[in-house]
Amino acid sequence: QVQLVESGGGLVQAGGSLRLSCAATGFTFRSNTMYWYRQAPESQRELVAFITIDGGTHNIGSMKGRFTISRDNAKNTVYLQMNTLKPEDTAVYFCAVRLGGSTYWGQGTQVTVSS
After folding, report:
1. Residue whose C-alpha is closest to residue 5's, from 20, 24, 18, 19
2. CB neighbours (10 Å) of residue 20?
3. 113, 13 Cβ separation under 8 angstroms
4. Measured between alpha carbons, how far is 40 from 58 in angstroms, rounded to an integer?
5. How far is it, in rounded angstroms, from Cα 82 to Cα 64?
6. Nearest Cα residue to 106 out of 11, 21, 41
7. How far is 106 from 87, CA to CA, in rounded Å?
8. pLDDT bracket for residue 14 (50, 70, 90)
9. In a 10 Å sphere around its CB, with 0-12 CB exposed, 13-18 middle and 19+ buried, how is residue 37 labelled?
10. What is the pLDDT of residues 28-82, one digit of tens each?
């Protein structure tokens, strides 16, 4: 079955960096676009970035220029490098994949940025 396991979250001061990882199993990783989303308390889940099968990357909104998504097909892992973190980046971060009309989610990893 499809499994996505995020890691790398934690508590960091404003201006700091974190690198999130998402290990994927149960599907052909290299043949699928991978997504990072985040959800802050009492907010809707929002798209952060995605990376296509040929490595094309797309960053969204205020994360542009600060966050970088990448993938390692040999390790079936997608990454999110987050730099110059701000308190408003505090959220649970999820990776996701869309397969056969359904979206599969990991359990999420908490990122907390202190001011």
Report:
1. 24
2. 24
3. yes
4. 21
5. 10
6. 21
7. 23
8. very high
9. buried
10. 999 999 999 999 999 999 999 999 999 899 988 778 889 999 999 999 999 999 9
